[in-house]
Amino acid sequence: MIIYTICLVTGLIFTLFSAVAGHLFGGHGDTHVGMAGQADSGVGNDGVPGISIFSPTVLACFVTAFGAFGMIFSKLEVTSNPWIHAPIAFFGGLIVALIVLWLFNRMFHHTEGSSESRVASLIGQSAVIVSPLPENGVGEISYVQAGSRYSAPARSEKGTAIASGQTVKITRIVGTQFFVESITSKI
Known about the structure:
7 strands; CATH 2.40.50.140; two-stranded antiparallel sheet; alpha+beta; 2 domains
């Protein structure tokens, strides 16, 4: 019974401390493309922020629920035997943790709305030269994706100069620099 009480109290204290500390100190780090910035969040294979089964939030939910279920089922006469109420408390805590995991991941997935474009989908897209690209130098292009206009530093793929106003095709992206080539019309 004392173990269940310790788990319940520890889980609740952690939750309250996290809420207060997160409110007072911001709870978020610097936001980077594709990152939520929270200590217990991460990015899945699809680039969408999420939460791990081993995050402090999910573990605290498990510990709290384990303590609560253990206290409840240890008091019931039918489940007063530790061989009965301990596994029930464990699986009850596990179910609560999995529900919290599912809810947080669903919430992160639905709230993920970013004006950042998906870089990989830009290859082959046309753009316009905003600042001329000097020979073997860097200029600037402007492109439209998903209804938003973006600009980026660019270089000519062949190292040739390209004047402002020319339409180009994005051929590759290295870091933050876009490589482009002139679009020549074939008759």
